[in-house]
Backbone:
């Protein structure tokens, strides 16, 4: 038997949770056809001796809905061994849509997911109206990984109800019937699932709450009926859970009626144990036979601030805002003026900056980002601690650090999963039987967050580097990001290394696996800027049997396509 590709002598962690074994992996026609000792002829060989061989990573929470229409590479995710992404999360996306509503959906995506409106206006071709037409458009494109799309509640609601939907008016019986029918149509056309947002944190660029925020139980159950009629698809939800009994009851009823699995965003907020109450409800729902998983992160969710970013530690102070929109070099020069520095430090941030200012906690929860960021930073490494050791005022010290050198310094401000100053809560979430890794938001929050690197943190930090608590064994970590994520979105042909499975793989130099420093690049349409983050240690990534990246460098192969729900 002739193989297209053989990966030789790797330490194979197959995604089932089983221990690593040394073996060759043979690939033909985009599928794994043999695992063991291979002596047959092959067209191409990769020596994996001393390296890990894992399934390709499946990231179920991204926002590449626009990027997939104008780009071939789904970076930053493709820098981190991801071979399948699911987009259309949090109820936002670009289909179905009427021509008159293009701007509304752009404003919503710009506000909720911080993607520049100018980039979307220039990049989106808008050659579709219905969700099936959007999928058909994506099916004409080639990517460096497989891309799946979910039907977003906000777009659906606006499509059916117009401005009544955008203004969060209650849906009528006729509205609900129309939404139910379109949900069925989308699932049958290949949508991975349906997503919705019920959090006040999600607002348009004009400050309007997301259209799905207050959708009533009847609407949710009508959508569930559409899912049930289709007999396929998954549900993805995010909520504030202000009234846990009522809200979780609504979501559980939706999942139960649809008969489809659901994931719910789960993270530790300012209250250290609030997330446990939600996880208790998830456990109870599963005990009753309704499949609900908490979608969790492997590290703190945090904002990156600095001069290259959307926000700096001094944003909204009047003397800073006078120069904030200047070209970068001019802005840096202006900020190096001692008189301007003195004025900025004497001013107070505005009320609009109050939340982030509180999170920085006078610099005690503000950490510098190094070449290889520490995502479980110690108190003594905070900017306040460093300033104290040097006998300096904390904000003067932060200011000087921000403008030194090329002015590209960034700072890390955790706002979720770090209430106790460690990642113990993430350990508990990651190892729970009713959770699945997610929340990386690849493609979104392009000026403030770069969490598409979650998948590399999952392996490197929890499998090797953690010094402040327990580690997690590698077979479990690989299973979580491959088998468990793929099964959570019902993609059953990938996620494990076995004969007949899709040939998506990573070859990893585990001893050198680490997340690199975030950097700002300008490669969006209309010259828009976004955060990019690379990683060391990925020897090769294989998608559908073709090597797409070698040592972090793209090979030019684009075997990825739209993947439709199964």
Residues:
């Amino acid at each position: 038997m002739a193989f297209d590709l053989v990966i030789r002598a790797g330490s194979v962690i197959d995604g089932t949770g089983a221990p690593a074994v040394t073996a060759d992996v043979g690939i033909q026609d985009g599928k794994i056809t043999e695992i063991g000792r291979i002596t047959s002829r092959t067209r191409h060989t990769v020596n994996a001796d001393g390296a890990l061989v894992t399934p390709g990573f499946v990231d179920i929470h991204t926002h590449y809905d626009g990027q997939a229409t104008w780009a071939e590479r789904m970076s930053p995710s493709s820098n981190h061994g991801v071979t399948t992404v699911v987009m259309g999360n949090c109820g936002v996306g670009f289909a179905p849509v009427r021509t008159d509503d293009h701007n509304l959906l752009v404003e919503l995506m710009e506000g909720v997911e911080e993607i520049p409106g100018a980039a979307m206006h220039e990049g989106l071709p808008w050659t579709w109206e219905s969700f099936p037409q959007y999928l058909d458009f994506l099916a004409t494109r080639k990517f460096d990984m497989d891309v799946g799309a979910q039907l977003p509640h906000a777009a659906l609601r606006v499509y059916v109800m117009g401005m009544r939907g955008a203004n969060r008016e209650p849906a009528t019986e006729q509205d609900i019937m129309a939404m139910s029918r379109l949900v069925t149509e989308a699932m049958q056309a290949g949508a991975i699932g349906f997503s919705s947002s019920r959090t006040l944190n999600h607002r348009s660029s004009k400050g309007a709450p997301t259209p799905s925020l207050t959708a009533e139980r009847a609407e949710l159950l009508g959508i569930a009926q559409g899912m049930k009629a289709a007999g396929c698809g998954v549900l993805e939800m995010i909520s504030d859970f202000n009234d846990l009994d009522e809200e979780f009851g609504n979501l559980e009823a939706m999942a139960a009626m649809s008969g489809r699995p659901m994931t719910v965003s789960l993270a530790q907020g300012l209250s250290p144990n609030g997330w446990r109450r939600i996880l208790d409800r998830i456990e109870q729902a599963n005990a009753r036979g309704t499949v609900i998983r908490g979608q969790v992160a492997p590290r703190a969710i945090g904002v990156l601030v600095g001069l290259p970013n959307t926000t700096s530690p001094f944003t909204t102070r009047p003397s800073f805002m006078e120069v904030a929109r200047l070209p970068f070099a001019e802005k840096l020069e202006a900020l190096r003026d001692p008189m301007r520095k003195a004025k900025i430090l004497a001013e107070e941030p505005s009320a609009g900056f109050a939340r982030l200012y509180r999170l920085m906690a006078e610099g005690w929860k503000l950490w510098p980002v190094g070449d290889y960021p520490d995502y479980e930073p110690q108190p003594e490494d905070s900017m306040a601690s460093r300033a104290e050791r040097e006998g300096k005022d904390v904000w003067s010290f932060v200011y000087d650090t921000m403008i030194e050198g090329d002015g590209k310094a960034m700072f890390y401000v955790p706002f979720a999963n770090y209430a106790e100053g460690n990642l113990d809560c993430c350990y508990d979430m990651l190892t729970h039987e009713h959770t699945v890794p997610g929340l990386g938001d690849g493609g979104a929050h392009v000026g403030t967050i770069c969490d598409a690197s979650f998948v590399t943190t999952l392996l490197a930090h929890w499998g090797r580097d953690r010094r402040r608590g327990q580690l997690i064994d590698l077979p479990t970590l690989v299973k979580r990001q491959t088998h468990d994520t793929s099964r959570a979105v019902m993609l059953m042909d990938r996620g494990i290394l076995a004969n007949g499975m899709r040939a998506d793989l990573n070859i990893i130099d585990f001893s050198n696996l680490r997340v690199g420093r975030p950097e700002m690049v300008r490669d969006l349409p209309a010259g828009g800027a976004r955060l990019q983050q690379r990683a060391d240690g990925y020897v090769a990534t294989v998608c559908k049997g073709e090597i797409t990246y070698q040592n972090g460098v793209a090979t030019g192969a684009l075997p990825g396509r739209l993947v439709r729900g199964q």
Residues 303-416 form one domain. The CA atoms of residues 131 and 559 lie 23 Å apart. The chain has 19 helices and 24 strands.
